Amino acid sequence: MVHNMDRAEWILQEETPTWCFGLGGRSASFGEVFGDMFDHHTVVYEYPSGARVYAMCRTQVGCYNNSGDIVVGTKGTCNLARCEIKGLKGETLWKYPGPRCNPYQLEQNALFDSIRKGEPLNSGYHMAHSTMITVMGQIACYTGKRTDWKNVVKSDLQFGPPPEESNFDTPPPTVPDETGNYPLPKPGITKLL
Predict the structure, then answer these.
(1) Mind listing the pLDDT tens digit for each residue in 2-60?
(2) Which residues contact 41 (CB under 8 A, 6 or more apart)?
(3) Among the four given CATH numbers 3.40.50.720, 1.10.340.30, 3.40.50.300, 3.30.360.10, the one describing domain 2-165
(4) In this structure, are residues 43 and 172 in contact, taking their beta carbons and an 8 Å threshold?
(5) I need a labelling partner for 86 at 20 to 30 A (CA). Which of 38, 58, 97, 151 fits?
């Protein structure tokens, strides 16, 4: 979901959501290999501008999957994966006329071009910002509570021990039970902030 939030942030010109709420759980992925994370999340982010982002993800085998972004506006919709904009009646208003590009190759081209020109690319802020927005959504799903950006950024929450206390002998923060399953967050009960 973090890459979808990257794209949402580009579209919203780096606007930060004020708050979010979410739901999630685990319904199909059990056993030691799955750890202590949910296998599905849905988050609704509310922005100061009035924009709203609906973000969903599922990591379940045998299910329909779609890793796409659709922007809905007052005059139509934009499907980023299809590079097209459709009007309210479904008519194509614009479609990218060029060849289909490999985004991973374009990313590498930009990296090597920046190295050759001595103009470093630094997307650190954008990566940290969209990751933190996604963590905010994860907190909302795990707790079942409305989660405010201001509380998330001032929180000292860590998933696991801090790096300076971690080594190969550090016990994990959670361990599986006798059936091989890890304890899971319980929305409405789990407190993280």
Answers:
(1) 999 999 999 999 999 999 999 999 999 988 888 889 999 999 999 999 999 999 999 99
(2) 1, 22, 23, 24, 55, 56, 57, 137, 138, 141
(3) 3.30.360.10
(4) no
(5) 58
